[in-house]
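Hi W., the S-adenosylmethionine complex you wanted:
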Amino acid sequence: MQKFLINKEAIDAGKAVIHGQDAKHICKVLRLKPQDTISMTDGHGTDYTGRIDKASFECVDISILSENKSLTESNLDLTLCTAMLKHNKMDEIIKQITQLGVTRWIPFYCKRSIPLSGQKKEKKQLDRWRTIAKESLKQCRRSCLVDIMPPMDFQQVLAFSKVYSHRIAFWESSDRPLAGMVPGENNKAVVLIGPEGGFEKKEIELAVESGFISYSLGPRILRAETAAVSACGLIQYLLGDMGGR
Ligand code: SAM
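Structure:
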């Protein structure tokens, strides 16, 4: 069964309440009733098991039975930076990378990215992306929400990436394979995926000057969204928890 998101601050004397669409889902779709158990998370790494005390379409009252640290989060701190693509592609990336255990997602502008101008538009997009991340978390039973950051420009992304032990720029002209990569001193990896038109050579040179290494994803040219998802899966396999370690 899926995990429900609750606000840690709203837990009072061992009691929690779930409202809105989630309450409706619990009653109408899952048909849970008083005395049934339910899984919850605060979205920041703590999971809860609860018992339903009262359930209606408007709100579900729960007694917390136990609290434990998540078992579904990777020890790899993985940040994916994707150049701005068309909206539906960005939505799909968020759904997929939530399942792949990505920690943070940074959309960015570069020479060939799709523009998204205007602060109002940006705020609306950000809200939409964060809602998608919440829905995806519930489905895949993660315990940490993907930290979705506001769009940055390319230079800001490079500056932000300085603290990562692995700085990985995927570039179709690179012939360096990913295989052989081992966890670094802080096991933090940041990944750059370019726009549909690809990175300009100058952008890759700037990334390399900032400590990135350019890597290949094989001989075929992948769509940006395919490249983003494949890259996260491969890196989670090599450095994180998808290799069964
Ligand atoms: N400019 C390229 C072209 O039209 O030939 C395509 C760019 S590709 C659609 C979008 C992004 O996906 C690239 O900037 C890169 O980050 C990543 N990518 C796609 N295929 C790749 C590959 N074989 N190796 C490394 N990166 C790849």
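Residues 125 and 131 are 10 Å apart (CA to CA).

W.
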